[in-house]
Design goal:
Protein name: Proline iminopeptidase
Strand content: 15-25%
Strand order of the largest sheet: 1-2-4-3-5-6-7-8
Family: Belongs to the peptidase S33 family.
Order of helices and strands: EEEHEHEHEHHHHHHHHEHEH
Shape: globular
Keywords: Aminopeptidase, Cytoplasm, Hydrolase, Protease
CATH superfamily of the largest domain: Alpha/Beta hydrolase fold, catalytic domain
GO molecular function, one term: aminopeptidase activity
Number of helices: 13
CATH architecture of the largest domain: 3-Layer(aba) Sandwich
CATH topology of the largest domain: Rossmann fold
EC number: 3.4.11.5
């Protein structure tokens, strides 16, 4: 067996900027790689997670021209942690505005976790704009997925961590953890808001990898990051992503003709593998890679290896011809 791939070397953006998308929101974006090479857009997770320098390193900088951006309310986009005019469909429109800004007809769309949700929503809305899809940790924001992670399911795997997640919530309100957290995260008590944000964020950080990763947990415990992550994620999930239950699987036929890759960890706790498998069945144009010995995080070796293989594979398609 060949050795697992490592990320491309660290690379600095060749361009950074902001885009006023209306509704009071200004997005931070950066471009990395080689101007005029194969265009791609990277969609981060969360919602509310933001981009990081390591995300740039998933693409060969000699063969890609990648746009990365912080979605509404998080990272370096402003206003920080804002829930106003912040929905899935606002973000789909934002992606189109960014595509028009850089002047490409099509681009590869790469999304993991919540980024896979957003990538699917974008591709199903604007299929002609998508040359390829690379998805990791597929999440469809169904009621069953949300209950599994925030009410009963993952709680059985991590009872110690679940107890810490429950701690900020009064016992009488634990029958609906998402609603209880929404009250705390949107309340006027700043101290309780930050306590809830950290607990919500750390719950995710401590359950997304097969083996514990203290670096991820430390990042999610930092107040500024946690506030945007928890508020925006809870906001989106409370509204089920402004999607009909099962919509992204129902409308998978709209992806017909788009080549793609689905990468999913066998032991992905936030995103049960059955939904990635269902997407694969509904979208046969995509290759499916189920990674044994891996959880949810893109940094886990088997997952990272397949993601790099996917971006390398599609980098070879530099004809520039549009897919009809």
């Amino acid at each position: 067996m060949s050795a697992l791939r490592t990320l491309y070397p660290e690379i600095e953006p060749y361009e950074t900027g902001t885009l006023d998308v209306g509704d009071g929101h200004v997005l931070y974006f950066e471009r990395v790689g080689t101007r005029g090479a194969k265009p791609a857009v990277f969609l981060h997770g969360g919602p509310g997670g933001g981009i990081s320098p390591d995300h740039r390193r998933l693409f060969d900088p000699a063969r890609y021209d990648v746009l990365l951006f912080d979605q509404r309310g998080c990272g370096q986009s402003t206003p920080h942690a804002s829930l106003e005019a912040n929905t899935t469909w606002h973000l789909v429109d934002d992606i189109e505005k960014l595509r028009q800004l850089i002047g490409v007809e099509q681009w590869l769309v790469f999304g993991g976790s919540w980024g896979s949700t957003l990538a699917l929503a974008y591709a199903q809305t604007h299929p002609v704009r998508v040359s390829e899809l690379v998805l990791r940790g597929v999440y469809t924001v169904s009621r069953a997925e949300l209950d599994w992670y925030y009410q009963f399911g993952v709680s059985e795997m991590f009872p110690d961590k679940w107890a810490r997640f429950q701690a900020p919530v009064p016992a009488a309100e634990r029958g609906n953890m998402m609603a209880a957290y929404r009250k705390l995260l949107t309340g006027d008590d700043r101290e309780k808001q930050l306590e809830a944000a950290r607990a919500w964020s750390v719950w995710e950080a401590e359950t997304i990898t097969l083996l514990p990763n203290p670096d991820i947990a430390a990042k999610h415990d930092e107040g500024h990051f946690a506030l945007a992550f928890a508020r925006i994620e809870n906001h989106y999930f409370t509204h089920r992503g402004w999607l009909d239950d099962g919509q992204l699987l129902r409308d998978a036929h709209k992806l017909a003709g788009i080549p793609g890759v689905i990468v999913h960890g066998r032991y992905d706790m936030p995103c049960p593998v059955r939904y990635a498998w269902a997407l694969h069945q509904a979208w046969p144009d995509a290759d499916f890679h189920l990674i044994e010995g891996a959880g949810h995080a893109w940094t886990e070796p088997g997952i990272m290896d397949r993601l790099l293989a996917a971006t390398d594979r599609y980098a070879a398609d530099v004809s520039g011809k549009s897919r009809n």
